[in-house]
Queue: 4 jobs
Job 1
Amino acid sequence: MSKAFTKEDDSEVEFEDEAAELPGGVTNYMTPDGLQRLRDEFRRLQQDERPKVVETVAWAAGNGDRSENGDYIYGKRRLREIDRRMRFLLKRIESAEVVDPKKQKDKSHVFFGATVTYLNGEGEERTVRIVGIDEARAEFNEISWISPVARALLKAEEGDEVEVRVPKGIDRLEVLKIAY
């Protein structure tokens, strides 16, 4: 039967690429560990996950009618998601400017890659690590260097008080400790 007379799944619309563009004028700073995590994810998608999905799609396509073949439909959708993520990762890896915090000469100021312990206006002590946009992970207390808290802390010294705009207004942070 001609493909013109078969109903293709409407969900097979091409997905937009993830927001691969960085905010205007922002350099894609990254720690060596963060860059390695992106490379590892790209490699895993390219060498493990994508070939498995391609194999499943090829098998499902060989089963005949594709219009109601869940393995085929889901596999094609998953393949597009993997390809989109790989394009995103490749753009970010290529644009990365690696900054190794261990090579920081001035350890008395807060710079990219620093682990900073500070006291907020409510008297709570917090510790964060300032990292690149694509490597920030809240569960590890890592914040992006372009976040309001990180921007306020950058270039501060131990004992300095800095101000950061928060939803409730302005919060004062006191830098207690800096480590690299």
Job 2
Amino acid sequence: MPDALFGEGRAVATALLWTGFLLGLFVFYLLLNWLPSLLISRGLPRADASWVQVAFNLGGALGSVATGLLMDRWNRAALVALIFGCSIAALVLLAAVPASLALMMAAGFLIGATASGAQMALYALAPSCYPTEMRGTGVGAAVSVGRLGSVVGPLFAGVLLKAGQSPIEVLLVLVPLFALSGLAATLLARRVRPA
């Protein structure tokens, strides 16, 4: 298994893929689990926070499909950089907008679409990192590493909030993590060719 992941010059691609998945799913699952609570803490009524979560999930569904379609048509590295850049901008927007249902729904939709799209981009890139006979092992290992992020992300938010961080600070601490995920994914997209 180590040879499948790191042999024959695959070590850099594997490290980039794992970094992208780990940090990307860290951010995505933190938002998926904590977004309503963070918004309620910012002054949004509970019912309105639920609507923002609906917008986040709807954006995620549409963003995933759109990313899949575009990955086959556009320059992959440019698209990946654009998606992650838009995700970071949407995170900052979500942290900056006042506790208004319309504004937060728009920001929630955008972060859902772009964060989910970013994950779909990684899924689209992953098979290209490995030869056919090793592809299942390589992609499976990357997804497993990402699942570690999906477990640790929500726990991290709880630790930050317990330590006295504000909801805005929790959202903003995700920016550099998502930027690192995006950098890894963009570098990966420049290295690999479609499978």
Job 3
Amino acid sequence: MLKVNFYELNTIEDSKLQFAVIMARYEGKWIFVRHKERLTWEIPGGHREKNESIDMTASRELIEETGARKFNIFPVCVYSVFKSEIESYGQLFYSEVEYLGELPSSEIGEIKLSYTMPENLTYPLIQPCLFKKVEELYMIE
């Protein structure tokens, strides 16, 4: 069974934060990305690299996966995914993107701008929980 938990910022040891996920909006629409090798959509984000702060991870992943060039980014909370007796941690961010440049050459094939979350998700048990958390905190409809 899979379970998503949420924690206040700075309540989980920083070294445990392995992922950054960014709920980003551009011109009032959410940005979703599609990996070149998949047909499904995901929230921009990715793994933290060695010697990188989780904030740096979030900014880097947002740029690499969406082409965002000018944006404000804010930490929302820490989240964990508990699966098969293993709990992995990440940090959820919210971003308002002011300018989208060309999509960098990376694993991302395309981006999608949408008022709602797509139905065809890469992580359908996790992504709706993260989306809902940001919508609730920022009272976005």
Job 4
Amino acid sequence: MIDTHCHIYADQFNDDIEEVLNRASKVGIDHIFMPAINFESVPKMDEIVHPHIRFHKMAGIHPTDINGGTRTTEEELFKYCSNDEIIGVGETGLDYYWSAEYKSEQEQSLRIHCKVAKQLAKPIVLHNRDSTKDLLDVVADEQDGNLRGVWHSFTGSEDEGKRAIDLGLKLGIGGIFTFKNAGVDKVVGRLPLEQMILETDAPYLAPAPKRGKRNEPAFVKYTAQHLSKIKDCSLDDVLQVTDSNALNLFGISQ
């Protein structure tokens, strides 16, 4: 089982990181992918170790950090992401939920991330909140056949999901997918499992039945179980497909 989006280096895990990772290993998590919030995230990732879990680093600037004044250049981002240990570019994207004041700055940052991802042939990890059309429009504009990645924490409509897939994106299925009133599971049920990967976004957005609690990698099992129910297939089938998708997307050997 793979958690493709986990901020396990976050301060929320400072007091019990060993126990959290042991629980993850116990349920079968053997890979954890760590997107960055900003460049300060990267050295924190180096501190995360466990004998039975492989950890994979990304580098990038979260759009809400752009709101706070963080900026990067194509040259700086390329320098970080060209390191062989960095498997992906991000997370980046657009977020209009907290403020629409920084739309142009967020778009500029997103385009920089897209350009670096294409140059390095590494996948991009896209955050989206209240910005779906603009996000997919930028991806469409930047897509030259070399851009690939994932719409992290997918919450779109069926048409938006299909457009994202057509643009070369996988759909990251996480905690919101399990919420009874969100309606995301109905949409996901009509989209192809072959284009999905599993994630937690820990410590945020814990899935049912842990909703409202601190999320952690072990909880990806609840999302996987719900996905097997929605897709009317076995849990093993879900894990085989989503694990393979994740490893192929990020170029990781088993």
